[in-house]
Design goal:
By secondary structure, the chain is mostly beta strands. 0% of the residues lie in helices and 49% in strands. The strands form two sheets. The protein has a four-stranded antiparallel beta sheet with strand order 1-2-3-4, with no helix packed on it. The chain has a three-stranded antiparallel beta sheet with strand order 5-6-7, with no helix packed on it.
């Protein structure tokens, strides 16, 4: 049940990217599901965020819209979907 986890998803030409905030005190969790191969899991570098949207720009970058616990909005650029 992701209805309370601030979920968002976006499709790219090569993958479906899903993100959610299972616990607002933790970083946002992302999973990229490529058309072929295993899913790639990664997380945001900042905790205490709620994911509000994921969008694909014309240049292929994925942008994540979020809000934090102080209701200050910001947008983070996801630049790399490669596993660590």
């Amino acid at each position: 049940d992701n209805t309370k986890a601030c979920p968002a998803a976006v499709a790219t030409p090569t993958a479906l990217v899903f993100g959610h905030s299972p616990d607002l005190t933790q970083p946002i969790q992302f999973t990229a599901y490529p058309k072929s191969g295993e899913p790639i899991k990664f997380q945001s570098d900042t905790p205490r965020r709620c994911l509000t949207s994921l969008s694909l720009a014309d240049n292929g970058h994925i942008y994540a819209g979020t809000w934090d616990t102080t209701n200050t909005g910001w947008t983070a650029l996801l630049t790399d979907l490669a596993p660590e």
